[in-house]
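Title: Prediction job returns without error message
Component: structure pipeline
Severity: low
Priority: P3
Assignee: unassigned

Description:
Job completed but the reporter wants confirmation the result is attached to the right record. Sequence as submitted:
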Amino acid sequence: MNEIRNVVVVGAGIMGSGIAHVFALHDRDVTLIDVDTDRLAAARRIVERDLRRQAGKGVIDAGRVEETLARIRGSTEMARVADADFVIEAVTEDARVKLDIFRELDRLAPERALLASNTSSISITRLAGATTRQDRVAGMHFMNPVPVMPLVEIVRGMETSDSTVQAVVELATSLDKRPVVVRDSPGFVTNRVLLPMINEAVYCLMEGVADAESIDEIMRHGMNHPIGPLALADLIGLDTCLAILEVLHRELGEDKYRPCPLLRQYVAAGRLGRKSGRGFYVYA
């Protein structure tokens, strides 16, 4: 595999901006693509804020803030993938949207380029099947917040080659992340284990077993979790949690993955968590 220097991130949401942040911080030239110019501008503000926070805590030198920002360019044109060595998709957790993007990436990206998805639950094999380079497609599932969390779940699709897996593992390691390789399966490992816990916490809230603060306090202080499941759901996005549970329920066919009705209600009401200002908690 050729050295990966030019990286394209498709999707300028919370995850996309975080992924652009870590690649640029580790000396890659990054193009961040989104159809929404306002979202691109917001992503740049988020990256700058988080870089200055890292500098303030002494995690990085202050001089690296502007250097890193200078490596990130925004664009609304998918044709910018023409010079990419590596492309990672980080759009909404909707299989139809992702499949359309992978078809376009396969058409526009150079033959040498590896394609990856930051999907939380959708089959990498299915996404790769929309391309003519199934051996060069893998999952690269970062954790939120991307600049802070060390784990990257590397997902091997049915046709993903050993050389592609090795290249993506080496890439994650070069970002000072901890890559762990898993097989393509609904929810992979992280969300197959995590989302049922979050879902059960929502059931406890719905059934009046305890309020949100108490549920999270029990899991923080009793199970040594750094953040409670309901606060974590707000961080992930309740719409994303619902989408992942729907994939798990549909693909695995077991009722233990059935989304809690209260979760559906919150999403229907627009209470999506931190990104909307209100979820299980209210945010300024």
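Comment from assignee: result matches the submitted record. Residues 37-56 form the longest helix (20 residues).
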